[in-house]
Structure formats: C-alpha cells, structure tokens
Amino acid sequence: MRLYWLLAALVLASLLTYLQHNALANLWYWYYPWFDTLMHFVGGLTVGVFGIALLKKKRALVFLGGMLAIAVGWELFELSINAQRELNFVFDTSLDLLMDALGMSSAYVLARFTIWHSA
C-alpha cells in the first residue's frame, strides 16, 4: 500500500513541476494572484503524501513536526531568495502556511481513513 502512496507523491510532484514551469514561463503568478495559493495547497498535499509514504504507521506528532518544518523551511527559502512579491508579506506568508497546512491535512485525513484506519 505504501507503494501507491509513493506513486501518488510522484504524480503530484510531476504535476507541481509542470505547473511551476508553465507558471514561470507564462507569468501566471503575476497575472493570476490566486495561483500562488493553489500551488501552496498542491505543494502541501504532495509533501504530505510523501511523508505518509515514509511512515510505516500512524505517528501524528512525527508527521506534524516534519510537515511544519518543511512548510516553515520553504517560507524561509522564499524569503532568502527575495521571492516575496506581495506588499503585505506577513499576510502572504500566513496564507501560504495555511494552504500548506490544508494540503498536508488533506493527505493526513485521507491516510487516516485508508492505510491508518486500524491504527
């Protein structure tokens, strides 16, 4: 069953890469302000699915800690490369973290009712 989660993570990562490539080539982040929000949700979902594939059993605190570290690390990376494009950087960062958390939570809930249902 974990193989399916790894394959799902690969498919999601491929989708994320495709969207990112096209977004940069076609300036979607500037034409469609909501696109960054969508990308953070898909990114959170991708990381969450991959994290679930790595865990052999339900370990909520390990999952939560790892996902929080990745989400905050990504925001620090964006800050370090001056990727902030919003005037209200604090609001944008908060929204990004919320969407990351929603994507990761979606993966967690799905795992809770599938591979971790008896745990």
Characteristics of this structure?
119 residues, 5 helices
Overview of the molecule:
The protein has helices at 2-26, 28-31, 35-54, 60-80, 89-112. The mean pLDDT is 90. With 119 residues, it is mostly helical. Helix 3 runs parallel beside helix 5. It has one domain. The chain has five helices and no strands.
Describe the structure concisely for a colleague.
With 119 residues, the protein is an all-alpha fold. The chain has helices at residues 2-26, 28-31, 35-54, 60-80, 89-112.
List the helices and strands and how they pair.
Elements: H1 2-26, H2 28-31, H3 35-54, H4 60-80, H5 89-112
| Secondary structural class | mainly alpha
Radius of gyration: 15 Å
What is the overall silhouette? globular
Determine the number of helices (DSSP H or I, runs of at least 4 residues): 5
What is the makeup of the main sheet?
Answer: none
H/E element order: HHHHH
Give the helix level as a range of percent: over 70%
Distance between the termini: 15 Å
- The number of domains is 1
Q: Mean pLDDT across all residues, rounded? A: 90
> How many runs of DSSP E, i.e. beta strands?
0
> Which percent range describes the beta-strand content?
under 5%
Point out poorly predicted stretches.
Answer: none
